[in-house]
Amino acid sequence: MISSMKKLWSKSRSYQRGVFYRNSLVFILLAASIPGFMIGLLVYHFATHQLKDDISALHYEQMNERVQNIDDQLSYLEMGLSNWAFNPTFGYRLQTLDFVYYFRDTYEVTKSLVVMEGSHALINEAELYIDREQPILFKTEYYELNDEATINYYKQILSREKRMYWEQDNRAGRDSIVLLHKIPGESTTPFGVLLVRVDKEKLMNLLKTMTPYNEGTTFLMNKDYQIMLSDSEQQHPLQEMLIEHIRNNEQPTGQFLFDYGEESYSVSYGMFKRLAEDWIYVSASPMTLITSPVITFSKSLLWISGLSLAIALLLAVVVSNTMYSPIQKLLNQIDPERRQAGRKHNEFQYIRDHWLNLSNKSVELEHKLDSMLPMLRNTFLMQLLQGHVGNLTELELERRMRSLYWEVGAHQYTFIHIYLTGLHRIDQQMTASDERLMTFAAYNMAQEMVAASFEQGYALNFHDLSLGIFIIEANERPAAQNQLQQFCERYTNAINELLRLQVSITISRKTDELRKVRNLYMEIERAASYRQFLTQNQLIHMDDLPKEFTFDDIDYPFDTELEILQVMRSGDKEQTLELLKKFVDAGGRQKERYAQQNMLQLLGSIQHMMLQSGINPIKLFHGENLYGQLSQIRDPNKMLRWIRDTVVMPFLAELESRVNVQQQGMMRQVAAFMHEHYSQDISLDQCAEIAGVSSYTLSKWFKQATGVNFIDYLTELRIKKAQELLRTTDMLINDIAQKVGYQQRYFNRIFKKQMGVTPSEYRGAASADQKNSTYSKK
């Protein structure tokens, strides 16, 4: 029968059937065989897995109850010993007391030890060791110790830093679990120790209550997976296998099913948190005797169901060939070459998709372009104004502008800045939301008027009662100055009438280089000192202002500034100082006033980063006028020392003081892991598990320590590594993407979002800079 099924299946595959054929085959197959198969599967599931799960859950629940009882007993024992350690009977006078002469005091100590032995059922024996010229041991009677090995054992106990802890005494004839507390309890220089030895037989009886059956095994281990207490005198092979399984499992507690020989065990394990020690308890109970008859019966049903399924498959192949014949003929008429595609697509869906494919693609692409183009233009213009694409050449900037369907090249560029004033004249009090609505309304009006007045113009919404207008004009048809002024007047009148606000407008100079648009924007910001934000409209032409407002010669190191802010957030002192020197060296190659201007700009960026990190610069620097101090310094080396000592070091000290020792260690561990495994798939939960905290706690500490969230830090790290590889190697971009943990398509999008350019454009710009640098040196 199996041979006949193979022949029929091979024949059916030779017809190049598609998804519809296979779906029909599966449908017939299920219709014919599903009753018997489902019965066998349900019986097997509920009679075996469910039964095992129920037994395992019962075992786990019962064990948890017993564990709580054992934990309470041990906690009561610890609390009792701690109380005895602070008892005046075991105070300072024992260090010098003559126990023979003051026999009543000696009797009080002996009586206290006897009472201590009877205070808890688990205590087998109580001892008191006093370290003095002639060591004394109460057990419970008074002894003078002369045995060097015994004296060394107790001295070793006193030399440890812990004041109270558990220990396993493995000395000859002393195989026992001991709880110790140094005395006096309140002393920083203890001279003795109280010991209680646990009755191992009673403790083992408590542990055995975790096993619901008479068979199985129960044992207790220390954190090094060494058995401290077991229900068998010698270590059983089952115990060795369970220890190895638990050691390889990263979970501190849990339950699982374990097969040993012909038996199946329900194993539950967990931890006792005993002072500074972790004890691991394990309980394994057999289940095979209960489940084996049901499993045999269930497997028989599954075999019968499988046989029924094979017969149904044989019949389904025959029937489906007849059903599929008309569909195959239709597909061959539509597309004779479609046989391979027919395997991958539903035949009827393929017919429909084939008819709609071209028209749908056209509509989809047109819609995507219309919806994404404004956002892409807005993003690029913001990057251009903020200097994030300053590493691109003029040709690269023009190429990017053309990709956004702007005509550039032999063109001039003008930037208009608009600020809304007069809100205080409105009767009702304005909220931040109302201000954004006002700005949005003014932005919509600007868009409409720009489209009607200029061939190429774009409005930008800054969301703070201000907006900008970027105008591109062909050299052969430049807009006259009065044309710009007429536009500003029309816009001013519209704002006055519709929004009842005043407008302060600044018109930049014209430039024929995209790289200088950033300078135009900076000039407009500086020209704000000429504005009078009163109750009247204002119009400022940059051409009418003094020449010192121009920024043609400024070459600001934006990349170095971003790196400085990033490493300061992470608290990396050494790298921060290296980057500061690099920043100052870059400014030192320029004119002195430009170098100082760069340092003033960096100071403002650092203070802005401090505010984002939750540190108030005014409070940190005690209200000192940092800009005034910096403006008095001309020498670059003095600038470096000043910003290092006055700004950076106090911030790093404050940042470090806000993070406790535990958080620092955790953050260093997580950061080291991220730096080592950034090319792999790293998650917040994974790092939280490494640090031993919850993902919520790690996220909160990460934000406090670095000023950015986990994902942003990881993205910056990966992009920084990618930049290094793009600059220093000839690796393919796809290989670099995999090297830093991204797929190429996603890597291109992330890199462009972070850097403002694609990886290939960044590599080209870096290569050009290296060539220029080499040429300059020559």
TrEMBL record:
Tell me any Pfam family this protein matches. HTH_18
Q: Which SUPFAM superfamilies match?
A: Homeodomain-like
Keyword Transcription attached: yes
Keywords (alphabetical) are: DNA-binding, Membrane, Transcription, Transcription regulation, Transmembrane, Transmembrane helix
Q: Name one GO molecular function term.
A: sequence-specific DNA binding
Q: Where is the HTH araC/xylS-type domain?
A: 668-765
User: Which residue spans traverse the membrane?
Assistant: 20-47
Q: Under which name does UniProt file this protein?
A: HTH-type transcriptional regulator YesS
Source organism phylogeny:
Bacteria, Bacillati, Bacillota, Bacilli, Bacillales
